[in-house]
Amino acid sequence: LEVWVFVSCSCRSRVGAQEVLWDMSIQPASLVERIQAIAQNVSNMASRVEQILQNSIVQEGSSSQCEVPRDPRYPECPGKVDWMRARWTSDPCYAFYGVDGSDCSFLIYLSEVEWFCPPLAWRNHSSLPTQFTQQQTKAPRRQAAFRTDLSVLLDQVGTGQESLSFMKRRIRRLAQQWATAANHLDAKLEQRWRDQKKILVHVGFLTEESGDVFSPKVLKGGPLGEMVQWADILTSLHVLGHNLKISMSLKDLQGFLGVPPGRGSCPLTGPLPFDLIYTDYHGLQQMKQHMGLSLKKHKCHIRVIDTFGTEPAYNHEEYATLHGYRTNWGYWNLDSRQYMTMFPHTPDNSFMGFVSEELNDTEKRSIQQNKVNNMAVVYGKEPSMWKGKEGFLQILHRYMEVHGTVYYETQRPPEVPAFVKNHGLLPQHELQQLLRKAKLFIGFGFPYEGPAPLEAIANGCIFLQPKFNPPHSSLNHEFFRGKPTSRQVSAQHPYAEQYIGKPHVITVDFNNTEEFEAAIREIMSAKVEPYLPYEYTCEGMLERVHAYIQNQTCSAPNEAHPGVGKQLGPMFVPLSNSTALGWSPNVPPPAAWPPLRALRLLVSQEGQSCVEACQRAGLVCERAHFHYINSKEALHALEVQCEVVDSEMNHILPAFSVMRRECGLQREALLFSCAGHSPKYRRLCPCRDFRQGQVALCRDCL
Ligand SMILES: *[C@@H]1O[C@H](CO)[C@@H](O)[C@H](O)[C@H]1NC(C)=O
Ligand SMILES: *[C@@H]1O[C@H](CO)[C@@H](O)[C@H](O)[C@H]1NC(C)=O
Ligand SMILES: *[C@@H]1O[C@H](CO)[C@@H](O)[C@H](O)[C@H]1NC(C)=O
Ligand SMILES: *[C@@H]1O[C@H](CO)[C@@H](O)[C@H](O)[C@H]1NC(C)=O
Ligand SMILES: *[C@@H]1O[C@H](CO)[C@@H](O)[C@H](O)[C@H]1NC(C)=O
């Protein structure tokens, strides 16, 4: 019908042209102009008609081409088309990709931009831009070169918020140390080829959209651990020579990723322009809101900086929901090694860490000479951390001069007793001077697992901290509640206790007054050297991050046919054809990293986790190796007699019950867990060796 209207309209125009001729004879002056104008109108209209005719022919002719296909390989297609019919206007991004309300446009979109429907045979696929064909042309490999000049990085960090100034001050202060470390590592790696990666760092918690609650507290004793760590991550990536983009706002994130205009329901406009994206839980949430399906597709490239760690049981959405592990933060279905922690407390995750300031030998000697044996500094910049600690402080004061660095505005905070010499919040170099003189750095239980004790120990202090009995965890302590881990925190700073220990660290029950006093006396007479574990030096961090970037791989998902292959990474080889998470089955095992020669198969006691079992043997649980021990052969090798070999989804598997003569293998690779334990089961544990001072890396890992 439309066509006829326009055709007749076109005829009328021709009539109009005749009228012009008639008109012409009367008013010859405007003749030329009018002819031109009318001719223009006529020709415009003709071409519009032609266009409309053509479109309608395409639609008529292809109405069968745009029938919703019933293809068992694309079961979601009809449902998605229905959804599009009802909701395609809900986000302008659909129109951006050419959706106009017609079924053809839905099918084109759902097959070429998303991947729920089969490709349409009549579309010219060779003419489609790359985001539609999903083919990523491999850029040529480039070699990364160490950088010792940090000025470009400092410019990239930008200005504005107080947190950025804090990070920049830190980067500048440690610049020399980073440069020296870069030269050492460069020499150590002996010209080895290192791929230069394109890396995006999106610091979610500093974005305005997530509230940037930190900036206002930087100058008031607020927690700085996260900012310390981000500053060091940025510096490591820069120094290692990677191609770095930094985003601290939603707008930057959208721009860097190529988010189409709209509300974020659609995939990105092109292939992911990064090899790796470092972010945090806030940033992950933002990426989920703005990347549509692309987040799932590019999941492999993401690394989540996660201070306290995420255990596999909490990370697997379906499992967490069914078994009571659901929290505000978990259930992202990542490989748990994609979570990177502040301390090496959760071997299911990767240990990212941070660095502490290093001293040269001259400085170390001068510290030894200037120590004041009866000087103690209390760990805790906020008055609330001192609340209820008068008893301990009184005892301490009987032996030592007590110093504090508690933030205050005008007067002494009431929580800080009068005998305490409070310096107020100190700038970094003054705090360091104080620590260099002090003999004791004492924690009263909070904050947990921060950077300050390492700094104190590096400046020759002894760190005295409370043992927690029972341990604190998400089950019994408000602070950990809702965190995706059930890790038992046995002291204020478990790393200090386990990895450093005496004489630098003393962990006692503070409620046992005798023990507490004995510890203080011991400290006053002890002589200790400044100490910093290698993994917290710049070189140690560079070495670790280098190894992760070069060898902790995860191949891109099957980008050519994402509808069929969906997601996949050899790093995350699944064992079943469970498609719940979109990982593809039946993939040949990848070249292992850490190398398999580091693997030691152990069996835990009943009730013991693999974290503990490996630790008892002087080893560390290696989650990457579960894949290789999840087999009947492993059970045979251990001479386990079992009646049933079953494959289930349970985070304690592979495991067996001696009493029940029952064995179980793991069906879901995402649930391999060093942390899991059960009173009835003995677990098969993949343990490995580690480098002295660098627990993240096995001896042959570099
Ligand atoms: C040409 O078309 C425009 C509107 O499309 C109209 O305003 C104008 O009067 C037309 N010119 C002539 C000469 O018919
Ligand atoms: C498909 O598109 C390409 C690139 O635009 C063009 O060269 C080719 O001729 C087209 N093929 C068909 C069959 O239209
Ligand atoms: C040690 O560090 C201090 C101050 O940071 C510096 O003045 C001194 O030259 C350094 N000494 C050596 C031997 O590098
Ligand atoms: C000391 O005991 C009290 C109450 O018995 C308890 O609340 C507190 O956590 C204990 N402190 C330490 C450091 O163990
Ligand atoms: C790390 O990966 C590189 C290639 O990127 C390879 O040459 C090297 O052997 C790997 N190292 C280990 C220990 O697997």
Descriptive overview:
This protein is an alpha/beta fold and 702 residues long. It has 5 domains: 1-60; 63-124, no CATH class; 151-351, no CATH class; 361-531, Glycogen Phosphorylase B (Rossmann fold); 564-688, no CATH class. The chain contains 26 helices and 19 strands. Strands 7, 8, 9, 10, 11, 12 and 13 form a 7-stranded mixed beta sheet that branches. The protein has a 6-stranded parallel beta sheet with strand order 2-1-3-4-5-6, with helices on both faces. α10 (225-239) links the parallel β1 (198-202) and β2. The longest helix is centred in the first third of the chain and has 31 residues, at 31-61. The chain is globular. The chain starts with a helix and ends in a 14-residue tail after the last strand. Mean pLDDT is 86; it is low at 1-28 and 555-588. Bound molecules: 2-acetamido-2-deoxy-beta-D-glucopyranose (5 copies). One 2-acetamido-2-deoxy-beta-D-glucopyranose is lined by residues 550-551, 593, 595, 700-701.
Unreliable spans: 1-28, 555-588
- First-to-last CA distance: 73 Å
- Give the beta-strand count: 19
Which ligands does the model contain, each kind named once?
A: 2-acetamido-2-deoxy-beta-D-glucopyranose
Count of the separate structural domains? 5
What Rg is obtained from the alpha carbons, in whole angstroms? Answer: 32 Å
Q: What percentage of residues falls in helices of 4 or more residues?
A: 25-40%
- Put simply, the count of helices is 26
- Class based on secondary structure composition and strand pairing: alpha/beta
Oligomer: single chain
Strand fraction: 5-15%
